[in-house]
Design goal:
The complex is a heterodimer of chains A (78) and B (707). Chain A is α+β, with helices and mostly antiparallel strands and 78 residues long. Chain A contains two helices and six strands; from the N terminus they run ββαβββαβ. Chain A has one domain: SH3 type barrels, CATH 2.30.30. In chain A, strand 4 and strand 5 form a beta hairpin. In chain A, 53% of the residues are buried. Chain B folds into three domains: 203 residues, P-loop containing nucleotide triphosphate hydrolases (Rossmann fold), CATH 3.40.50.300; 88 residues, Helix Hairpins (Orthogonal Bundle), CATH 1.10.287; 347 residues, no CATH class. Chain B has 30 helices and ten strands. In chain B, helix 25 packs antiparallel against helix 26, helix 28 runs antiparallel to helix 30 and helix 29 packs across helix 30. Chain B is elongated, with a radius of gyration of 29 Å. The termini of chain B are far apart. Classes of the chains: A alpha+beta (78), B alpha/beta (707). At the A-B interface, helix 1, strand 3, strand 4 and strand 5 of A face helix 4, helix 13, helix 14, helix 17 and strand 10 of B. Strand 5 of chain A pairs antiparallel with strand 10 of chain B, so a sheet runs across the interface.
């Protein structure tokens, strides 16, 4: 239970964990483009790869690679 | 049967004036089709839209077959694909709209797509989605529902969905969306007729209803939408666009819509209101609208499908653990690309040799014929050494180009190409570039024209421009030919291989460093962070490979081929006039000897080395043939002659110079057409020339003391 509310950034999430996006503070353009790929607030996603370079996530049965810079602007819980 | 129908396509079909959707009219029910004065007046116009990678183009290709035309949208550098098929004596014309993720105004592609849907009023808009990723790929369809009522949905890749135990209830999906739905797999043999029948029925019969679902947003949003709608209801511009859609776009801060509406209205009040909301309640309609759309989609999918097993580790994930590993990913990338080049090189070798033999024999036969009819020697030489060798130069490069692009298509269709872009993002990032730039670089290794076309996928304008300008640094297949030929003459195989590798590394390094350098001049551009979709691994499909190769290799044949052919003839004239004199005293000889005053002290190039490079400016394919003509000594092979004529520093200096010194004319033409600027075209020509000259001087003089 207590882990549920732990605030975190996508960039720091561990591989294979399933997290929910709380807030995206990136610029408008990036936010819009993320939304087109189904990455928006309230959506659950799974982290596939998070080591070097862009972070790879699974969201709505698709895989999306997100640059590290943006991933530090996506707040997640879970 | 089908063939006979297709042949009828040659008959002229009168274009019927299209009944557009009347403003505020009821959703279309049945169209009035037959016109009394002719039996071939019926044309249905259908537009395909959808995400990239949903098989939209595959469906377009199987429906239209060879009846397609690829061009550009007027005034845009976005590809336009049109085609047609016939069914029951009716003409179905199809437009394959660019693959996009949404109908916002992020990119030219998206603006083109929605403008086409609204302003060209196709009889049917067909949204194509992927059954395995139904929710995400339907997002664009949901957006299109707000834009037009004549819309149908094709759910593709049902074969893959079945393998994943996904079940889609077509009827329920139809009820939810209020539009016709078809479930297919584009690789199923029966799919052609099923899709055709579906399109026919959707346009003709009462079988389907068109009552697109009306997406209601939250109360707060609805109030805002209504308030904008009231304000712009009686507008004089954008009359074809639904008022509600425009209002939604205003709230989404769509720049294109807002700038158009502001020609007529002052919308400041609205924006002030939105700003206030953003500040006081942390409520941004631009975030809220897509959120609501996805929420609605989730509901629709939930009610009509089962089996979407979220977050299950798939086979692709297991493969990616190795292939995209932070360390192992790179050796694998190098191995795959090395294999890629070896295969291109060795597989095309025998074909090229065979073709070369045939072409030479054919030329000799023609020479014999012309001799038999007493053709003047001058004319015989023009036909055989000018025209025929020009055709030969194009033909000889087709095998290598085709094999190269088959392999690219294999990597693309299997899903590896996107992954190599992902891996390269780390490397390219150091030079301020995005991983997506890597794809245009790979394409350019076949033919720079294709490479430059591939820069269209780069989102940042500045990055795209620098990739267009530097694509010619990457040795295309023609230059690979020169490199392989010359290194083979002068060096042991293993040194030759190392030298080739070094030359390729130099090309890539030049592109990377130039990107950093050009950035200083190309002005500021907002940096778009990397956000790309990584497709799942899939078994490559023959049909896709065929079409992708056909399109890209076609660019070489059509664009580069024409230039190579013309250049070959011009070169013949330059090297044969005045006719009958020694090559030293021909036009080319004079120019070469003039230039040698500069090139000899700088790079060690005498006039015989300069002339092939001069001829290589329009088309690199002719460098080898020019060398073999100039260094022709009866009774001695070109290999022995060149070995005796050139020193090692000269040979290396020549290899380095020819690698990057100038884009061919076909490449220059595409720099011009993609940038629409003569200034940039000039930069595209002189920048490589200056950079290469500097490098060659350094290379030549640092080698000189050792030999």
């Amino acid at each position: 239970m207590n882990t549920m509310n732990k605030k975190n950034y996508l960039a720091d999430s561990t591989v294979n964990s399933i997290v929910k996006i709380e807030k995206i503070t990136a610029g408008q353009k990036a936010r819009r483009f993320l939304a087109d790929l189904g990455v928006l607030e309230g959506v659950k996603l799974r982290i596939i790869k998070n080591d070097l370079g862009p972070i790879l996530i699974e969201v709505k049965a698709t895989r999306v690679a997100i640059g590290r810079g943006i991933a530090t602007k996506i707040e997640v819980t879970g | 049967m089908r063939r006979s129908r297709f042949n009828q396509g040659k008959r002229r079909y009168k274009r019927k004036h299209y009944r557009g959707k009347p403003q505020g009219g009821k959703p279309h029910s049945k169209r009035i089709l037959a016109s009394p004065d002719s039996d071939h007046t019926i044309e249905h116009r259908i537009a395909f839209l959808g995400n990239p990678n949903v098989g939209k183009s595959s469906i377009f290709n199987i429906l239209t077959g060879s009846h397609q035309h690829i061009g550009n949208w007027p005034g845009k550098t976005v590809e336009k694909k049109e085609g047609h098929f016939l069914l029951s004596d009716e003409y179905f014309s199809l437009v394959d709209l660019p693959g996009t993720y949404s109908l916002s105004a992020h990119s030219e592609e998206e603006i083109i797509t929605r403008q086409f849907v609204v302003e060209e009023k196709p009889d049917l808009v067909c949204a194509i989605v992927d059954a395995t990723r139904l929710e995400r790929t339907s997002y664009i369809a949901l957006q299109a529902l707000e834009l037009t009522e004549n819309i149908a949905l094709i759910v593709n890749m049902m074969d893959l969905a079945e393998k994943e135990n996904i079940q889609i209830d077509r009827q329920k999906l139809e009820e939810q969306l209020g539009i016709p739905v078809l479930l297919v797999s584009a690789f199923d043999n029966s799919c052609i007729i099923r899709i055709k029948k579906f399109l026919y029925d959707a346009l003709h019969t009462e079988k389907y209803t068109f009552t697109p679902a009306y997406l209601l947003y939250s109360q707060k949003l609805e109030t805002m939408i209504n308030s904008v709608s009231r304000q712009i209801e009686d507008r004089k511009i954008l009359k074809d666009y639904p008022t509600r859609w425009l209002s939604i776009k205003v709230l989404e801060a769509d720049k294109w819509v807002i700038s158009k509406l502001e020609e007529e209205y002052v919308l400041d009040d609205m924006f002030n209101k939105i700003e206030k909301l953003k500040k006081s309640e942390n409520f941004d309609p631009a975030d809220e609208i897509p959120k609501r759309k996805f929420r609605a989609l989730k509901g629709i999918v939930k009610k009509s499908c089962i089996g979407y097993d979220d977050f299950k580790e798939k086979l692709s994930d297991k493969i990616d653990k190795v292939v995209m590993h932070k360390f192992w990913g790179y050796p694998i990338l190098i191995l795959i690309y090395a294999a890629f080049f070896l295969i291109t090189f060795y597989a095309s070798g025998p074909i090229i040799n065979g073709l070369d033999y045939l072409l030479t024999s054919f030329s000799e036969i023609v020479r014999g014929w012309l001799g038999a009819v007493n053709s003047p020697i001058f004319l015989t030489s023009l036909i055989v050494d000018g025209v025929l060798s020009g055709i030969g130069a194009v033909l000889l490069f087709i095998p290598i180009i085709v094999i190269f692009y088959i392999l690219v298509a294999l990597m693309e269709d299997s899903g590896y190409l996107a992954r190599s872009a992902y891996l390269m993002d780390n490397v390219l990032g150091k030079f301020g570039l995005q991983g997506t730039a890597f794809l245009s670089m790979i394409m350019g290794l076949g033919c720079n024209v294709t490479g430059i076309m591939a820069t269209r996928t780069i989102k940042s304008e500045r990055d795209r421009l620098s990739m267009i300008l530097t694509n010619s640094f990457l040795p295309c297949a023609a230059r690979l030919g020169v490199i392989a030929f010359l290194t083979g003459i002068f060096f042991e195989p293993w040194i030759a291989a190392m030298l080739m590798l070094a030359l390729y590394a130099m090309s890539f390094l030049l592109v990377f460093l130039s990107a950093m350098f050009l950035k200083l001049f190309l002005g500021k551009s907002e940096t778009m962070p990397l956000i790309i979709e990584i497709p799942e691994y899939r078994l490559p499909r023959l049909k896709n490979i065929f079409h992708l190769t056909w399109e890209r290799a076609g660019i070489f044949v059509k664009k580069a081929g024409t230039f190579i052919f013309i250049a070959s003839i011009v070169i013949w004239f330059m090297s044969n006039i005045p006719y009958g004199v020694d090559s030293e005293y021909t036009i080319a000889g004079y120019i070469g000897r003039g230039l040698a005053y500069v090139t000899e002290p700088l790079f060690g190039f005498d006039w015989k080395m300069v002339v092939p490079l001069l001829f290589g400016i329009p088309a690199k394919e002719v460098v080898i043939s020019a060398l073999s003509i100039l260094y022709y000594i009866p009774g001695s092979s070109i290999v022995a002659t060149l070995r005796a004529a050139w020193t090692i520093p000269q040979a290396i200096s020549f290899l380095v110079f020819q690698l990057t010194y100038a884009p061919c004319f076909a490449t220059l033409a595409s720099i011009r057409s993609e940038t629409k600027s003569w200034k940039m075209t000039a930069v595209g020509f002189f920048y490589p020339l200056i950079v290469t000259s500097l490098i060659t001087v350094v290379v030549y003089y640092s080698l000189l003391p050792f030999f």
